[in-house]
Structure formats: C-alpha cells, structure tokens
Amino acid sequence: MRLLSSVFQLASVSLWAGRVVSQKILLTNDDGWAVAQIRAQRDSLVDAGFNVVLSAPAENESGTGSSSAPPVPLQQPCEFDTCPTGSPAEGFNASDPRLNYVNSFPVDAVRFGIQTLSPDFFDSAPHFVVSGPNVGIASTDNLGTVTLNSGTVGAACEAAKEGIPSTAFSASSLSQVSYTTLESAPTSPDTLSAFIYARLTSNFTSTLLSSPIRPILPPGITLNVNYGSTTFSSSGTPNGDCASADDFTWVFTRIIANNSATDVETCGSTHLPAETTVVQSGCFASVSVMNATTKADVDAATQGAVLARLQPSGLLSCFDG
Predict the structure, then answer these.
(1) How far apart are CA 140 and CA 210, in angstroms?
(2) Tens digits of per-residue pLDDT, 70-102?
(3) pTM
(4) Alpha-helical runs (H) found in the chain
C-alpha cells in the first residue's frame, strides 16, 4: 500500500492544534457513562484544555440508533453498579457533577446534555459534541451501513439537528469494561487502546475547532470518524505498527463506496475512498461527512466545506490502497 503524504508536515498539525482555546464540549456515547473509553476521553479532552461535561446513557445502549424515549428511574443498577436500582432518571457522580447519566437512549442523553446540563455548566449551548469513541472490534466498527443502527452516530446526528456541530468517533480495539480498569489494569490492551483513541479524538477535535472558519460545520451534517485496530499482545506489549496515536494516518472518505458519484476533488480524484476500505487497511483514521437526517453521504460542495476546514492543518493524507 502506498501513502501519498500531504504537503504539510506533522509538526504543522501540532502547531495548528495548539491554537485551540478553551471551548465547551459535551461528551456522550452509546456504551454508557461508566465505560473505560468515555472516561479516558473525558480526561484527555480536559487535559487538552477543553471545558467538558459528560452526558451518556446509564447503561450500554449500543445498536439503538436514533431511538428515543422519556428517561425513567432505574429498574436495575447502572452499568458496573455505578448507581443503585431506584436511582432517578437523570443523575450524576456525587464527587464530580460533570459526570452525568441519563436512563434512556443516546439521543436522549445528548439532548439532556444540550438542553439541561449545558445551560447550567456553560451558561450557553456547547460549542461542540463529541460522541464516542464507540467501543467495538474491527467487524463491528461504525462503518458503511452500520451507521444506521449506531447509537454513537445517532447521538451525533441528534446534536447536529439541534444546531450543535458534532462528530461520531468509533474504535476497533476496545472492550466493554469499567472505567476502574484504567487504573487497575494500566498496561492491558484495552487501557492502552483507550488512551490512544482518546488522544486521537482530542487531537482531531482541537484541529477542527482551531480553524477560524465559521460555522464549524455546515448545518444539518455531522462527521463520522473511524479508527483502525491497535496492535498489542494480550499482555499489552506492542505487537505491530499501530501502537501509538502517532502511527495513525488520517484520510478523507465517504460512507458508502460509489464510483459513479462525484465527490469533492482531492488527491487528484473526484472519487473518495470508502471508509470501510481505509479503516480495514491498517493504521488509518477515516473522516466521512454525513447527512444528520438520512445518515447518508453528502454532495461534493458540502464535503468541500469540511475539507477546506481540515486541509490547512496538514492533518489529512492521500490513500492509495
């Protein structure tokens, strides 16, 4: 496989991302408020200088798409026994009220975060919604038509429909484990992968938000970002070429392969590679532009608006696979 590097060097990405000022981020997912990945992501965003509030389902709600229902009191404990049976429909961590659960679907969790939590903590709407990274393996990443049923994607789409720019992030090498494993098993493949995906997501968010172009994203769209698998042995030893965030290459993609479609011109072509092809080829991160209502690919002009925002940072490379 041959990679055609972008004109800008990686150093310029760091300089660009370093310009980001503290912005208000609502963090959500479909795997639940206490899963290791979302807590690693929260810490990474805070470390990057963002003002973060977490609003996620009380339990694992993977595969629920854009389902919605009024939140109800807990009929069973929150995931990993993080709140008892009978807890209220919405609640928070007693030691950190910025960590919130909603006992319903991802769409309802992000809606609660936008409409209720953000005015309380931000005194305004959030600047951006980070949904994920989703917990998954290579065969169940949120790629192609899988996006239609993804709660992670559903939450990002809901944010976009409410006027808040957003991105859905999904990873390939994670398990549904408690946030406590980040400390109890610091060298496990799950923990190491969680930190890598968290760093990738924070770096992308910083890059996207640091551009002076406004709006951040065109109205009515969201982005679908997917990460390839990390490479660690069962003991956490690096076992391949994808063992750090710096190993990943970012590629601008489309959701569904379609050689008859005319996409934005980049890398000498008007046909973007399909995200599935890119992500399953190794240490890649794909970026696709999605209609928040239909969850389908968008036209070339809309792709172009997003590309114009990302290209000057030097983040993206060409793919020839």
Answers:
(1) 31
(2) 999 999 999 999 999 999 999 999 999 999 999
(3) 0.92
(4) 10-17, 36-47, 106-112, 118-121, 151-161, 181-184, 189-210, 275-279, 300-310
